[in-house]
Amino acid sequence: MPSRKSTIDTAAVVDNLNLILELELAGVCRYLHYSLMIFGHARIPIIKWMRDQANEGMDHASLAGEHVTTLGGHPSLKIGKLTESHKHDIDQILREALEHEHATLDQYYALLEKVEGKSVWLEEYAREQIQLEEGHIAEVEKMMRRPGDLKPAR
Q: Most-buried pick from 20, 26, 97, 102 (CB within 10 A)?
């Protein structure tokens, strides 16, 4: 438990963690759905990557929920916004995934702002998740590039 817990706004942090929990669960649903909608000669490696992302999202959701209960909160049963373009080409799927990754990253940064300098435990958690999310964004952006194109996709 953070030794300076009383200096954080616990209710605001729990709300933020619940938003993260909801977004991570939405990511699980998204990546599983996307993996089911991939067809073509590159299907096997792409669905493996997407299912790995879904599994990682479940781990991230569990961790966020654990932090909620440690702080005395109640984990959300909601799932973040699930939108679908109904366009299942890989480029569209990656654009949707990238949008979702950015939304999740924003919530981890919001958490960091709330706990920075107040709770090493939560600050390190937020920083680690930010590092992972930024890595996911970098990977998706690379996947969106055309072979041989060194220029970033964004």
A: 20
Q: List the domains of the chain with CATH numbers.
A: 7-144 (1.20.1260.10)
- 95: burial class by Cβ within 10 Å (0-12, 13-18, 19+)? middle
Token duo for residue 99 = 């949008």
Give me the residues of the chain with pLDDT under 70, please: 1-6, 153-154
Q: Residue 64: which residues within 8 A CB-CB, separation 6 or more?
A: 17, 18, 20, 21, 24, 75
Residues 6+ apart with CB under 8 A from 144: 91, 94, 95, 98, 153
